[in-house]
Amino acid sequence: MRNLNIITLKSATKPYISRYFHILYRQQMSGNFNLTLSLVVLLAVFFSANLQAQNALNFDGANDYVQTSFSGVLGTANRTFEAWVNVDANASGNVCVVDYGTNSVGSRNSFSVSGSNGLTFISGGTNANIGSTSNVVTPGQWTHVAFVLDNGTGYLYVNGTQVGTGNLSTVNTPSGNTNLRIGQRVAGGSIPFYGSIDEVRIWDYARSVTEISNGMGAEYCTLDSNLVAYHKFNHGTAGGSNSGVNSSYDASGNGNNGSLQNISLSGATSNWVTGYGLSTSSLAGTLSATGCNASYTSPSGNHVWTQAGTYTDTIQSVMACDSILTITLAFNTSTASSIVESVCESYTSPSGSYTWTVSGIYTDTLVNAAGCDSILTVDLSVNNSSSEFSVDACNSYTIPSGNNTYIFSGSYFDTIPNAAGCDSSMLIHVTILQNSSSSITASGCNGYTSPSGLYYWTESGTYIDTATAANGCDSMITVNLTIDTVNAGISKSGKTLSATAVGASYQWMKCSDSTLVSGEAGKTYSPNKTGWYAVIVTQNGCTDTSECLKVNIVGVEDYASDLGISVFPNPTSGMVTIDGGFNYENSQARIINAEGKTVRMIEKFSSRQIQFELGATGLYTVLIYAEGGYRAVRVMKTE
């Protein structure tokens, strides 16, 4: 659906201006249609530019300037230069506002503030230079300055008041020389501007004092064919980091843009800074648009509206001024319905846009009486259909009809009749994959986890494990398993401890802190201090730790079993509980793996029960110290 709409933009502050531009604006809306607008725009051809309002450009008085592409008003033609300047209080000599041309008699256009704070225009030679009295420009303050060449007579203005005049009949600017330069003279010596410049305007006619006075306090928002170059300097962030903002846009519409030379673009100087507080004009307009259940993106791109109503949008004109649009949106209603269809071969949608050959839920779009979309949902069954697909199967494959089972790879046809009386033909590319088998010889200490991770075996023997092969089929693994064991028995005779295992390696340890007894690696050990002791036995390639026995050197026995402490469940799949029977004060628990390493230490617990998680599968020794005694319990962790 298309709607043609007229936007009429009117200047809010310049009602007397009569220049019009006609453009075509095309706005894409979601909802299967385009909205096309015909715009009559007053003084505004829309553009995209990154401009910031009310800034100026600061020059460091050393070598900063702006080089534009504007050749200037040439020959003896009338002209007007305007600018807002803020001369730095430390400036001690002449500072150039604008210049172009060449260093010959009557050939340049040096518009400057003199070292005595007067205003000058220098073209070189007799009847080519004029100046004002001193101190008409106050350093450190914003001042509007202007120069007018009117039929051979020159005029100088400060803040809309004439401050100088003279004969400039020799002025005759040739072509082909240096283009307009802002902040530096083009030839005849360097007089760089020191301070800030804003609102540089070059006109190709002699403006009257009334025009200068009336126009100097506001930015121009209207295209004027006599305004041949216009640099607002409204760029960047005042005093910010502006390293990428190194150009000045010509707001006259003539493309006479400028390139910043030697300007640092950071800090309070040699950078974009806060400019003179000018008032701004604006444009206003109205727009109406109609759509169907759509979303509308505003011309600026800043808003997306989905409800009918009146909205406001702001865009920028070619002269970087706000254009305010009042937009009235209306949305018609789309409709929706559904149908059920059943065919044997194919189905063409009501719109004729689609032909479907596979069953499914489809959407077709028609146009309803309101000119909006009519969304039709089609529940389609295509019965006498054909398909082609590939399958991988392990050992054999039975086709969907059940009529055949294949044990070899190949391409096979199958036909399934459906309830609608249509055939469903299938071409099936079958790949038969085979189960695999293998055998391994394995050993483990106390226990062994099968390759699949499904089993944990604690006895030697031959076992069958089933894993998944790389092709997705079963892999049958015969495991010839040898479980190596360690005899970690220990006995006590008097003050001598003996390991039960024969022909093994031994290392005696203190149960109180799991430290090894240096030099005690024999089958027997006679401690010289009262305490609890155990032996770490390595046998058949496996290592295990015995229970702890107490040796009382002074002859007083304290049996661990008197503590009344239990550990459960045993064996366990992970979680273990220690139950002291009642609350012990400042109890400790140490968990030691089969290699004799302490894998966990539980310090100073006072509750009756504590719980903890065991890690890898295997045999652990849990040592509990309470009430001056020890209890050692072996716990088996399974999968």
Summary, kept brief:
This protein is mainly beta and 639 residues long.
Attribute tags:
disordered N terminus, 50% strand, eight-stranded antiparallel sheet, mainly beta, 6 domains, 639 residues, Jelly Rolls, 1 helix
What composes the largest sheet?
A: 8 strands, mixed
Give the N-terminus to C-terminus distance in angstroms: 69 Å
Shape: elongated
Strand content: over 45%
Radius of gyration: 48 Å
- Helix amount: under 10%
In words, what does this structure look like?
The chain has six domains: 6-48 and 281-332, no CATH class; 55-261, Jelly Rolls (Sandwich); 335-382, no CATH class; 388-433, no CATH class; 436-484, no CATH class; 490-637, Immunoglobulin-like (Sandwich). It is an all-beta fold. It is elongated, with a radius of gyration of 48 Å. The strands form 13 sheets. The protein has an eight-stranded mixed β-sheet with strand order 22-21-2-3-1-20-24-23, with no helix packed on it. It is built from one helix and 53 strands. 1% of the residues lie in helices and 50% in strands.
